[in-house]
Structure formats: C-alpha cells, structure tokens
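Fold it.
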Amino acid sequence: MSTDPTLRMPAAIDGFRLLAFADWYTPDASGGAERAAWEIYRRLGAAGALVHVVSAVHGPPHEDPNVEVSSIKSYDLSRIAGGYFAPAPAAFGATAKLVRAFEPSAMLTSTIHYTGCLAAARTRAKTRIPLVVTAQLGALDHLPALTRVVGGTYENTIGRYILHRADAVLAVSESVRTHVIGLGAARSKVTVSPNGVDHERFGLPVVSANDDPLVVSIGRLLHNKGSHLLVEAVGELRRAGTACRVVFVGDGPMRSKLESRVDELGVRDLVQFVGHVRDPEAWLAKAAIVVRASFTEGLSLAIIEAMAAGRCNIVSDIAPNRELITDQTNGLLFRCGDATDLARALRAAVTDGALRERMARQAQLDSEQYTWDRAAALHAEALLSVVGRCF
C-alpha cells in the first residue's frame, strides 16, 4: 500500500458494496475506534461506496450519504470489565440477514473488540465474502492484573479467531501492528494505516506562553484511561504549592469515584467534570495543556487532536504514544501509572510557558501527516485488494 501522504481515494470504490461494523456510528461517539469508524465509513460513502453499518443502539441511527445503519442492542458492562465492553449478541442475526439482502462485496470492522467483528469473522468462515479488520488497540501490558487477564483472554481467543479469518488487517500504528502479529495475524496481511484528524475542526491558534494554563483531559472516565492518576497529581501539586486547574471532558463509570477522591484531596476548587460533550474542540480552545494518562492505546485520537490544536501534550510513556510524542520535543512523557511522575511533568508544563509553547508549535506541525482522507483511501485500497484476491 502507498505511504504517500497525498494519497487519494481510488475511483474503483464507486459502487462498492460494503458491510461495515461499528460499536457506535455517529460523530458524537466518545471512543476512538467509534470515531474512526464514522470518519472512514462516511468518506467511503461520499466516494460512491454503498455502505451498510451494523451499529449498537445509542439513540436514533446516524446516517450519511450512501451510508445506512442497522441499529442493534448492546449491554454496557464497562463497570464490571474495568474498560469499555458492550457485547451485542444481536449482531449475529443482523449480519446474517444483511448478507442475504445487501450482498456485500466485502466486510470491514473498526476493531477486534466489538461483537459485530466476531459476527463478521464467522460470516467470513462460512462464505467467500472477504474481511478487512482495522486493529485499534495495542499491548495490554500496563493494565491492572485482572483487566489484563480478562482482556488478554479475549484477545487470545476471540481476537485471534477474528484476525485469523481476516484477509487484510490495518493496524493504526506500528506498535499495534506488532501486537496483532503477536496474536497470530499473518505478517504479510498486516499494514499500517494511521488514524487521522480533522484539521479544519481542530486547528487552533497556539496558546501563548503568557496565558494562564488550563489543563484538560478528554476521554471516557475508565480506569484504563488513567483519569485517577491526574486527580492524584493535582493533589500532589497542591501539597507542593503549585495550583493546577483541570477539567475532565467525558463521562464513564469512574466519575463518582473520581469526584469523591477530588473531595478527599481538597482540590474541588481546582477540578471540574463537565461530562460528555459534542464539541471537544471547544474545551481544547480553552486549554493550554492536554493530559492523556492511559494504560493502553492504539493511536490516540485525543492526542492527535490536541496536537492539531497546538496544545502541549502530556502523555503516558507507552509505545503507541511514543509514536506521536517525543519527550521535550513536541510534548512530555511520564512513567505509565505513576501519578508522582505525572505531577512532575505537569509542574514543568504549568510553570514554564516558553517550553509549553515551543512543544505545542512542534506538535501542531507534526500533526499534519495525519488525515482522515488518507486513512479512508488506505481502507479503500485494502478493500479493493482483498476482493481482487478472493474472487
């Protein structure tokens, strides 16, 4: 596949019949895999592909030109699993029905962790309809033991089954490529197709070094996103005499626990929770610093969007994040899971405006290589390629 940053959508995608799967097909999705699915699927539709998406129910179905959505019920077990997990058994029946009625040329999944992906893999095992899988999540090494065991068990059973039946796998980063090959994906079938960013939407003026720095964390309030580490770091900074104002943008099962901990630490005047919002760029516009304290990633949309916005990123030192952020160059890294080291990085960014502005400007330049048009074109190339091989 081409690595040309100006890659264009292949004309042959016009009229292509695609059965696609997403846990939530909407521009309002808060999860990275779901957002990526919407950005890519709608671009395939805009290029002339006929796209039918099997999506879990999160309000009325969202539809774009040439994109139809079949909504199915899911069961959110995130609080039990410790990470986002919403099985949707109805995906199997919906997929079987659409295969007969829609007669797709190929299938495309947005991750290996949604029930629809398993339905697609089972369909591939029973039919000649080729399957392209997008892999969005890297290694689970830094997760808590129980979550790591549960997640690892899933990936080494269901995830491996899905990958074995894929005709092509698009990994969103080099570290994800390494991870899925370790799970049994054939090396020759796995290529890298990075996530993108809407530069028109997220491109903002870089915050001046002289402005009072607001810290923002955008994402679901789940343990694996590390929100609790930021709360602890704010408490440490207050004890050390440094005020650090933080806004959490997003919602999730950890919210009540985080709010209780904020009260215990006596930092309620410094920390605000605003819940899920439809326009995270509005909060990026107010921020100078963005923190991503996650234990696992693929290629974080939150980080790429903050880079495009010209904000100073402070991120956990895990392999996928190192593909985006170089310490002291376009952001700051801290030891994954270490609230004290996060407090160190926060103090540096909060107190050194010149450092913060320099890194933000470099991050904005570095973000230019990530576009959704290129990501969609790479997906189209993969779909056309597998159809050519399978028929």
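Residues 3 and 378 are 9 Å apart (CA to CA).
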